[in-house]
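Can anyone check this?
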Amino acid sequence: MQCAKLKSFLPDLVFDPARVPSAVQHHLRACAACRKELETAQTELHSTMRLLDDWKTAEPSPYFDVRLAARLHEAKQAEPIGFLERLRARLTYGSNLHLHLRPALAATLALVITVGGGSYLGFVGMNKASGHSQVASATIRDLQILDANDQTIQQLNAFDNDSAASASADSGTAATNGAPTNGAVPSR
């Protein structure tokens, strides 16, 4: 194993040496430079942990909340720089103007939605009136063809029944006239 590959396993060696492959552990036993680098990493980790154990958080000043509230009040009272910033400040927290504007804004929004919806329905209605019909699927077309074929077959069967009835009627009149019914010419 190369020393460069061992560096990628260094965090695992420091925190959980049991998870490291045996080839890495074998290289660590054989290479003094890698062993020294591991010891340095472990020493730095332990010293960092000791520093964190000794670290104490700084307590805020007892007047911190009072000063923060005063600064926020000053920021609210300060005049915004531009027109849009003044308008935004007035609408958000400066006055009660936003309470008077809410009904007007709601009415405007309702008007926009109504006009937009009506326009959409008008465009959809124009498309239907202009002759754009929906295309039927292949299955529906096949069923329509079969229905038309069924009607044609019924008409042909009715025509066959009519011609068979008229043929039998003709043969019946021919038999009464003395003509043979099998199509042979009578002999005299």
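Reply from J.R.: I decoded it. The chain has a mean pLDDT of 77.
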